[in-house]
Structure formats: C-alpha cells, structure tokens
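Structure in, sequence out. Go:
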C-alpha cells in the first residue's frame, strides 16, 4: 500500500513538472506586426498595426513602429494579413469531445450550446484548467417543452407549477439560461418568463405555437431561434393559422412526433400567401424596442430545404464527420423528413427564400442578429458551417462588416460580455483569428485562416492542419454500428454481439467503438420497432461503459417501450445514481410512478 502511494506521489510530481515546463514553453508575450486590424466595432480596417498580447489579454494596439516590443516577445510579421475577433456560433448541439478542435481550427472560439448536458459542464471545467482545447461554451438547460415533447429527453411541462420547478431545477444544474420549445402551453411559457427574472436567468429558444412572436418579445425572450413564429405572426390570417396548427399537432398519432406533411403543407403555403409587410414592420419595431435578438440559423434552414439535393452528400467536409452522423443525416433516417414529397421540398425552398428576405427586413429595421448554424443537424458542420452562415447573412442583405458582427460583437453584447470579448480592443481577451485575405471585401475570406489565438495562445497554420488531420483520422474509422446492424439483419443480435467482441479484440484501432456509436445503433433499432434487439445493444453499451448515465437512460427507455416497467424503473434509477442531474430520468420515473 505504501509503495503504491509513493509511486502515485512520484507520478503526480512528474506530471506537475512536465505541465510546468509545457506552460513555460508558451510565450508570455506575443505580437502581430504590420497587420490590418478589423476590430468589428464597425470602423474600417486599420492597416499596418501592431497588436500586443500579454497572457490572455490584448495589452497594446498601435501603428507598427510606434509600439515598444520587448526582446523576449514572440513577434509574428503579419504583412498582408487581417486580424479579426474570434468567431462565435450562437446555436449548436454538439456532444462529441474528440471533434471540438473543428471549431477552433475554423476560428470559432465560442459557442452557445442549445441543449445542455452534464458533459458540457465537464468540458467547460476541463477547458478552464487547460486540460481540453475547445471553444468557450454558454450552456442551455435541458429543452423545456410541453406535456408531449417533440424530442425525447426534454423536460415536459404542463402548467405554471411545473414551469417554476423546471426553472429552479435548471438553475440548480448550472444552466446559463432556459431553452424553451414549440409545444409549451401559454400558462407555462409566461410562468417561465416570470420565474427566470426572479432567479436571475434569461430564456431563449423557439416561440411556442401557443404564443405570438410579439408576446414572446414583450415577455422578455432574449433570443428567438430559426425565425420561429415569424411567418405566422406576419400573416393576415394569423389566428386561423394558429388554430389549424394546434389541430394538426392535436391529431398526431401516438408514434408521431410531428404532424404529417399532408396537414402542415397547406398551412405553410397559406403563411407565404398571406404575408403582410405592414404586420412585419410593426413586429420588427417591437423587437427593436425590446432588444429581442434573432438567431436565424440559415445553415440549417437551407439544409432542410435542400435535403433532396444530392450535392449535399458530396460535401468534402463530410470526411470530418463520424460515419454514424453521416448516416443520421440521411433523410430516410430522420423522422422530420421521411414523409416529405417533391412538393414539400419545393415549398420549403420558397419558405427559405422568404426567410432570407425577412432577416434582411429585420436588420434594416434595427433588430439585432446573431450568427448560428444548428450544428449536428444535417450538413451543419462544427466550425466550418459558421462561415456558410456569414455568407448567407450577406445574401440576406447585410454588409460583410455587419455579418462579421453577428459572430463577434453581437454575441458579446448578447452575453453581457462586451467588456471582455467581441472586438479587437485594448484590454480584451485575446481570442483572435488571423486571415490571409480581407473579409470586408468578400465575407468568404473568413475561411482563409492563417492562425488562431485562443486565450492568448497561438495556434499556427501547421497546428491547425494537424488538428484537422487528427479529427479526420478519428472520423473515418469503420462504423461498428453498421457492421452490427448488418449481422443483426442477416443473422441475429447474439451473432452481432459476438462479432463486436471479436472485432474489439482484433481490430480495435480500425473501428469506432465509442459509446455514441452503440447508442446510435440502439436507437436505429428502436425506430425500426426491433425492441428486443435494441435492448440487447443497449445492454452491451452499459456493459462496456458502466459509468455512463446516458447508457442506462437509453436502456431504460427501451425497456419502457417494450412494456417492462420494472426494468425501466431500475435502469432509470441507475442512470440517476450516476448522474443526479439527469432530468430525463427524473421525468420518466415520475411518469412511471416511481418517485
């Protein structure tokens, strides 16, 4: 015992020594000289500047030759290059730790995570102590939706009391804000709006169907995502549309998360045909008065409208995505798009064009916009797609500077962090992107990245390319889920489990044996109504990842769908034991009568 303790102590001392040397290797002083600074305040580019970084802050900015540079400083000659603030993607859903470098390699130094899980809080701790390289994270609560949520795992809320409880629970779990969703009842929505003020939080998300966009703005919703509720609120037949939409959701079959396109298609057509510029002007004036931010997420709106375009499946950036995510992006595997017809896609394209027009109108009316992509949805790539979003905002009518501000200054203002982030100014945190070309001439030049600075630490082009290469290597491992599904289909689940153990023993480096790979397969089987097979795969997952709360949560869900209440309760309890903040397990145990 004593020997083991001494060995452990020696290891800790060596680790501290190594980390101390590594920290010492990082230059304490860094400067870019002869660089054109685009500070994102709205001012023109400032040529031939020197920007000095001390620790994690910008400590001086001035004309090159007029700023003193100590001898020990690392100096980067940035002649012909342009320095902008680090970029923010203000709407992401990302759960793969190994892929966080994709954000940084694309100059995205901050993200707003729109469905918070305990793992995001853990990442934030690891980033703070230097153990993990990734973007700054602002973390939402679990999605708060109505009594029959669209997404499994959401917090189901029916009334005022449950709404207050949801806010209290989210704050206890450390959420930075509350995420509201489409099916919240009116009473619950306004209760959340009141309660967040009392608890010192904010709320953002979808405009629920039961509430108008104007009411959401007046109630203090800080940001509206995806332009939800805008078209319907700008219609001359708003009340009729609301009634018909409520009926469509009420008529869902038990196994449907969304109404059939047959029901929603005529409503979408009506929204387009009855758009009122006068109503829009009045609504946007209210948004400006209330300082209601909008995060249009054109990247996801475009991909949803163009999922029938085979060019998407040839996107070169797919090489950075795990095979299971590529499979998930196939419309045949997504409940939202399975029933869409050519007519539905044609209509979606018209709506997308109208949404671009609406965002341009909003901007001209003085409504503040945020750049966000809805990463993890089909063909929304971590890091890469933020540049697509900036291009789409320019297409909507913003200038390149105004588009750049939606990913820099505006997010900082939204987050109440303009004193430390969002612009290139003296005293601010040194999150910066060095570009090879001027983004004010062509917003696409934000993709031409020469270096990224994260909290004062320089990542040069070579390092960024190494990061991308490592992610590509991980992403292109063979899919264990695909191999097992083939065996299940052709033989049985027992043979598949046998294959899993054989491949893990003999070809561990060739396959993706991650927890999420097995979990994805389990849910594929659930969707296909292969309940017994799904249970066996989820059991295999918890066998291999016994400390995963999520694994037991998924197994419990499969048991519940199979009608085995006792085992569902047992596994939800185990999930909650491993993660007391698992709100889904709490909700499901309530539903199962096992508080």
């Amino acid at each position: 015992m004593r020997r083991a303790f001494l060995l452990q102590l020696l290891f800790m001392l060596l680790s501290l020594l190594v980390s101390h040397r590594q920290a010492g290797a990082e230059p304490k002083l860094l400067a870019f000289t002869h660089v054109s600074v685009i500070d994102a305040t709205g001012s023109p580019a400032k040529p031939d500047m020197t920007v000095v970084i001390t620790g994690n802050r910008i400590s001086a900015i001035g004309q090159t030759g007029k700023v003193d540079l100590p001898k020990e400083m690392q100096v980067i000659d940035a002649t012909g290059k342009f320095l902008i603030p680090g970029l923010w993607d203000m709407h992401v859903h990302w759960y793969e730790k190994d892929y966080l470098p994709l954000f940084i390699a694309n100059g995205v130094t901050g993200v707003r995570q729109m469905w918070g899980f305990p793992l995001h809080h853990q990442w934030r701790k690891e980033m703070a102590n230097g153990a993990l390289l990734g973007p700054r994270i602002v973390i939402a609560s679990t999605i708060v939706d109505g009594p029959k949520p669209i997404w499994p795992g959401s917090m189901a809320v029916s009334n005022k009391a449950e709404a207050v409880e949801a806010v209290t629970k989210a704050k206890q779990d450390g959420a930075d804000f509350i995420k509201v969703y489409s099916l919240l009842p009116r009473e619950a929505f306004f209760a959340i709006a009141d309660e967040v003020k009392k608890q010192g939080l904010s709320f953002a998300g979808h405009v629920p169907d039961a509430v108008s966009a104007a009411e959401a703005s007046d109630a203090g919703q800080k940001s509206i995502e995806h332009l939800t509720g805008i078209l319907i609120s700008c219609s001359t037949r708003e009340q009729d549309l609301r009634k018909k939409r409520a009926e469509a959701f009420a008529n869902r079959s038990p196994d449907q998360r969304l109404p059939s396109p047959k029901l929603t298609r005529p409503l979408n057509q009506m929204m387009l045909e009855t758009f009122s510029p006068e109503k829009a002007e009045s609504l946007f004036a209210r948004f400006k008065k209330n300082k209601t931010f909008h995060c249009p997420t054109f990247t996801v709106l475009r991909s949803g409208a163009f999922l029938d375009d085979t060019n998407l499946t040839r996107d070169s950036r797919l090489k950075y995505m795990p095979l299971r995510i590529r499979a998930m992006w196939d419309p045949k595997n997504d409940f939202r798009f399975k029933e869409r017809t050519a007519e539905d896609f044609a209509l979606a394209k018209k709506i997308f064009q109208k949404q671009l027009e609406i965002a341009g109108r909003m901007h001209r009316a003085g409504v503040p916009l945020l750049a966000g992509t809805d990463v993890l949805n089909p063909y929304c790539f971590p890091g890469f797609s933020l540049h697509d979003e900036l291009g789409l905002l320019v297409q909507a009518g913003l200038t390149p500077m105004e588009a750049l501000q939606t990913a820099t200054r505006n997010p900082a203002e939204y987050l109440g962090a303009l004193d430390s982030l969002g612009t290139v100014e003296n005293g601010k945190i040194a999150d910066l992107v060095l570009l090879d070309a001027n983004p004010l001439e062509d917003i696409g030049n934000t993709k031409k990245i020469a270096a990224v600075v994260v909290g004062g630490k320089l990542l040069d082009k070579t390092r960024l390319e190494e990061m991308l290469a490592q992610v590509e290597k991980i992403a292109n491992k063979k899919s264990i889920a695909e191999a097992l599904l083939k065996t299940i289909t052709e033989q049985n689940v027992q043979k598949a489990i046998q294959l899993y153990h054989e491949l893990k023993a003999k070809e561990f480096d060739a396959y993706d044996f991650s927890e999420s790979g097995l979990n994805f397969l389990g849910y594929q089987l659930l969707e296909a109504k292969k309940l017994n097979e799904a249970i066996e795969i989820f059991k295999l997952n918890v066998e291999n990842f016994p400390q995963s709360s999520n694994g037991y949560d998924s197994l419990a869900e499969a048991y519940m769908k199979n009608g085995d209440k006792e085992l569902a309760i047992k596994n939800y309890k185990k999930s909650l034991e491993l993660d007391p903040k698992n709100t889904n397990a709490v909700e499901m145990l309530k539903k199962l009568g096992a508080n």
